[in-house]
Amino acid sequence: MTNLNRASLTDATNKKSPRALGYRMPAEWEQHEATWLVWPHTPTDWPGKFATIPWLYAEIVRLLAAHERVHLVLENSAAERRVRSMLTRSGANLDQVSFHRWPTDRSWTRDSGPIFVRNAQGRVGLTNWHFNAWAKYDDWKLDDKLPGRVAKLLGCPHWQPVVQKTNAVKRQNDNGTKCVHEGGAIDVNGAGLMLATEECLLSDVQRRNPGLGREQLERIFSDYLGIDRVIWLDRGIVGDDTHGHVDDLARFVGPETIVTVVEPDVRDANHAPLAENLRRLKAARTPKGKPFTIVELPLPRAVVFRGQRLPASYANFYIANGVVLVPTFHDPNDRVALNALAELFPDREIVGVHAVDLVWGLGTLHCMTQQQPATGKAISE
Questions:
Q1: Is residue 10's pLDDT more than 70?
Q2: Which residues are catalytic?
């Protein structure tokens, strides 16, 4: 856990950094203007199960559109006609859905989409990180264009973090390289604290930014997302092809409250890394020097398809206006997780969403969504 007290840097477009201008990444529970989704269109992401996935997305759009606007990205006019029909049949409020015809590679919007920031006056901007498909797959060039398209549509301030081989953030005219980052790799409390894993951001496997170490990444997060301190966890769960995204592990649910998944079965491969993550969270301290409130969530029993263990986790929930969508897996622990989250969000509806088919794509509800914060004064609780 590291404190950051450095001067802010400049960004790729020769503006002051978001932090220098008073911007920060809000917490997910703060008021949303909308949720961004990319409609699924890549059958190879769910081989053998793709037919069920669009209908599941339609149900998620229905649930979200009852509480906030949904920006839905799809390929072309033919896709829009098809999707409108599906949403109508699913009972979604189309008056709350905006359609955008932009080609994409995949539909994991948390990682390819923009990460929004907001300043003290309530103005919203976005950060446009380089997306390279988790440093693992080749099809990412269309996804990498998504944040720029959103920035143009919204006409909001935007920044593009750029790095160079000397590990500094540079101006674009100094031939720097866009910094690689994904939204699922981090979670924030909206007040300067961030959760991340060493496995995802610091290991040599699926290395997003070769040559950048812990201190350099912390500096970038400070300047572009307003982060004061990073709480570093160890590793992710079994089956996660992102190599350690934190949104399957631990999430802020309040400024000083964190939920984290645990596995009590010592024979399970998840037991040791999750026990280490829990130890680190219990050792961490708030800015006032107090322990965080730690709430433990179970994992479902192993979800296996075609001999592959999948990254099934209740921590991959999504917090929207008035509702929390929680992945469920036809498991007795579904009820335990839903009840725990209901206690943490008494003013929101807690809705379980069947995710056994969805997780075959190696992600669930948080992975597919990206929140756009509302303009106006920040809401910290």
A1: no
A2: 367
